[in-house]
Specification:
The protein has four helices and no strands. With about 100 residues, it is mainly α. The chain has one domain: Helix Hairpins (Orthogonal Bundle). Helix 1 runs antiparallel to helix 2 and helix 2 packs antiparallel against helix 3.
């Protein structure tokens, strides 16, 4: 096999699915909000990987444009999420997700 042979599209889809599954399971299992944000980012990056692979496979630039917007939304999501976590930590002195369930109305 040649070292410069292209990777099949199905391999990129499988890798993206595995990354998304790891992120989803990590989000559902872990209780630490920082780890939960990391798992959300992993799921978003799995989607980005699939967008890039599909754009390369189809020969269009739309995938790269979508990835740019997803990364911008992810950066805003992290900034707002971390600000919320800091505000909760200042009031409750903990960032345990089970303790935050008391914030329901």
């Amino acid at each position: 096999m040649a070292w410069n042979a292209p990777v099949p599209f199905a391999s990129w889809v499988m890798l993206s699915g595995v990354l998304f599954s790891i992120g989803a399971v990590g989000f559902l299992i872990r209780k630490d909000p920082i780890i939960m944000f990391m798992c959300i980012e992993l799921m978003l990056n799995a989607g980005n990987l699939l967008f890039i692979a599909a754009a390369r496979y189809l020969g269009i630039m739309a995938g790269q444009v979508f990835v740019f917007f997803v990364m911008a939304v992810a950066a805003a999501e992290v900034a707002v999420g971390l600000a919320i976590i800091v505000a909760i930590f200042r009031t409750k002195s903990t960032i345990d997700v089970d303790e935050m369930s008391g914030m329901r109305g």
